[in-house]
Design a protein that fits this description.
Layout (H helix, E strand, L loop, with lengths): L2 H15 L9 E3 L5 H10 L4 H17 L7 E4 L3 H15 L9 E5 L26 H8 L3 E6 L10 E2 L3 E2 L15 H8 L5 E6 L5 H7 L2 E4 L19 E6 L2 H11 L33 E5 L7 H16 L3 E5 L3 H27 L10 H8 L14 H11 L7 H24 L4 E5 L24 H7 L3 E8 L5 E7 L5 H15 L15 E3 L1
Parallel strand pairs: 3-4, 3-7, 10-11, 10-12
Antiparallel strand pairs: 1-15, 2-4, 5-6, 7-9, 8-9, 8-13, 12-14, 13-14
Amino acid sequence: MTPRTIRAALALSVALSSVPSASAAQDIPLSGATIADINAAFEAGTLTSERLVELYLARIEAFDDQGPGLNAILTINPQAPARARELDEERRTRGPRSILHGIPVILKDNVDTDDMPTTAGSILLKGSIPPDDAFIVRRLRDAGAIILAKANMSELASGVQMSSIDGPMRNPHDLTRNPSGSSGGTGVAIAASYGQLGIGTDTGGSVRGPSTANGIAGLKPTLGLLSRDGIVPLALSFDTAGPMARHVYDIAAMMNVMVGVDPADEATLASEGRYESDYTAHLDPGALDGARIGIARDFLGYDTEVDWIIEAGLDAMREAGATVVDVRYPPWLLAAKAEYYQTIRFREFPVQMEAYLATLSPGYPRTLEEMVERAKKILAPLPDGGVPNPTRWNFFHDELAGGSLDDYEYSAMRDHGLPLVRDILVGAMDADNLDAIVYPTSPTRPGPAGVYRGSSAATPSPSATNLANLSGLPDMIVPAGFTGDRLPVGISFLGREFSEGRLLALGYAFEQATRVRRDPVHAPALPGEVIRR
């Protein structure tokens, strides 16, 4: 292919990606296709689920272990091609189960699957096959989705962006930059188009950090909207699963099948009568018209290029008809939020992790102390590829010394501190009649690889993400633009409890108005990756 041909092909790809999905028959790049586009191709007979799985597996082979070595995938489901063929036949004879019928999904490796290992990225749990699927995995499979692979992650959902199973993940936009964590593997995999959909988990920002660092969309739902049953815990007061995708439409489509009251997770009782059957119905490109949006200015001023992109995004909202209002949080909240988080997080992990370990087969650790002793014996890379992870393992000391769930500090924080944070945030929205408060998901561009500044760090970053966990409120992330060195910047829409429909509408309208998502330079399109709908 000549340079002129390459330029022409790239220009065509960009042009096609800017055409609305609802247009007449068209060719769409794989990375630019929404679930709606894929279903249209299924219905037209121009695509099968088996072919879609083949396309994604080819990308994993090209870019994960080979090429740039993004290292986003821990385990590929060997049954995925056969399952795709079965679902193709089912579609032909009985019709689709849902809009996710035949759609490949990548799961963070702390989400239980009864047919694939779930390690939470820890060599201490290598090869562990859980007794059953997580609740949300059952919902996905029942809807006809295909579990394609399990993604690398920050070990045990905390610490530096690597696992002791398979080492660090790499940002596909810049291999020297941080992909963020702890759902970094899912973020990298979706940005690099290894699958159509991804599932991460979020305790202090672990869906939202990788979404912004890798230039994709994500949602941290209201606590209790998605079941945590079958997810390796970090701190259940904060933990939630969250969908991640290249397109807001796909986030909404995932939510349709994953919500529901789960008797195994009492937190989901709060969602009874408040979850929706079709979140895609909210997706209105005009949703910003008449909206009232707060901007949390406390989280600007850390990176001039991020600030520029966020201000440009605010201008786009105004042009779309939104009113933008400045919001300032109380200084005491900004100063105390990390300590609020750690008061809960370090006390809950040992108890809740040990409850999870009790469900595993013999031979695996049963206590956090036993995990520490086994980790101390891993001081060099192992022949099978495992590596030491001292940054994460050092947190074991904080977790063991963090105190008890019977401590007055813990009960005071749980019963009074967390509701206080929620009331402050909701009060700020109520005071100005806001639909959402927006902020840069990360106030700085992705930093150097291997540096951890998360909510459990001694010096956390100034990001606002853990406020959504402290309050239990939902937070929608959408790509906002790129810095001069081609690093992604995301914008977050924080809303009231169970306002996911409204947040998805606002995020979708912003996405359609700006259209800034771009494929990573280290994971370009492969020949033949076109969806004809």
